[in-house]
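TA notes, week 10

Several of you asked for a full example with nothing omitted. So below is the full record: structure tokens for the whole chain, then the designed sequence directly under it. When grading your own attempts, check the secondary structure regions first.
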């Protein structure tokens, strides 16, 4: 379904990604694990073309992704994104936030007027039910906890009815219990709906627990590819050079700015 060959991304004279080759199967839940600055976000952003690769090719379902308008439209429709800081619009209701996942399928006048057809409202409600937030649909989103906001982020991604979800450190801002709950909702939706998920994580424990397959990235290169049982000490040292015993399996704090501004590149605060 996703085929990546020779993908490189250069920022100025810095190589953020260097010759990535990767295949992701339909319905797979793939975890990308790696330290801060390894290139995980850049990889996801090249897949949905929020970021233009310097070299290499990406194919989704056999179609090459490019920056021409038709390809971009198709990618933005098929690929949803979940962000570390949720990217919900605080003053909108939970339901309206989820409905923004439907904007790409609606006539622009209706979306501009924020008039949502019944069918879309029903889809949004079903997505909220999946993350067990149906009863909060009418609440303002800023009244929710961080974990609930991220579940809104998942529901919004599902409302897009995507083939692929790219989740960029979706639990980096959450405590361990909430993180597991959020990852469970995401994995369950992937399994039940057959959605391919690529999920960037910092946490080795969660990668082991939720990843069907794990790709370890370090210094812009893939240094490991395999099942959770393959994450041996030697492999972890390859992914996290200098990682000591005491840190193994613990949460590695993220750093760096949140780089993705909104859904499908929209600035939601401005769109609201
Ligand atoms: N727009 C940009 N301009 C210049 N350098 C960038 C840009 N975006 C990312 N980089 C650099 O590319 C490298 C990879 O960044 P990326 O955000 O992909 O890493 P990451 O593994 O997702 O890190 P983190 O886990 O901290 O989010 C970093 O060194 C980062 O500083």
């Amino acid at each position: 379904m996703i085929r990546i060959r020779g993908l490189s991304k250069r920022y100025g004279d810095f190589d953020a990604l260097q010759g990535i080759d990767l295949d992701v199967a339909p319905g797979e839940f793939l975890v990308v694990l790696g330290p801060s600055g390894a290139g995980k976000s850049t990889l996801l952003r090249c897949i949905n073309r929020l970021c233009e690769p310097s070299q290499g090719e990406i194919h989704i379902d056999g179609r090459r992704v490019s920056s021409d308008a038709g390809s971009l439209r198709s990618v933005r429709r098929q690929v949803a994104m979940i962000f570390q800081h949720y990217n919900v619009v605080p003053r909108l209701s939970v339901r309206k936030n989820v409905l923004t996942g439907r904007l790409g399928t609606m006539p622009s006048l209706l979306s501009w007027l924020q008039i949502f057809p019944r069918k879309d409202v029903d889809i949004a409600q079903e997505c909220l039910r999946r993350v067990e937030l149906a009863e909060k649909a009418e609440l303002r989103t800023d009244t929710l906890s961080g974990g609930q906001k991220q579940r809104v982020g998942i529901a919004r991604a599902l409302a897009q009815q995507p083939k692929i979800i790219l989740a960029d450190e979706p639990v980096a801002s959450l405590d361990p219990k909430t993180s597991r709950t959020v990852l469970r909702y995401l994995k369950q939706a992937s399994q039940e709906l057959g959605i391919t998920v690529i999920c960037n994580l910092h946490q080795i424990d969660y990668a082991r627990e939720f990843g069907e397959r794990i790709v370890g990235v370090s210094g812009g290169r893939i240094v490991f590819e395999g099942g959770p049982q393959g994450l041996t000490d030697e492999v972890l040292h390859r992914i996290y050079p200098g990682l000591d015993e005491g840190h193994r399996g613990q949460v590695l704090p993220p750093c760096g700015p949140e780089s993705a501004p909104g859904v499908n590149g929209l600035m939601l605060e401005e769109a609201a």
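The first strand starts at residue 2 and ends at 11. Use that as a sanity check on your answer.
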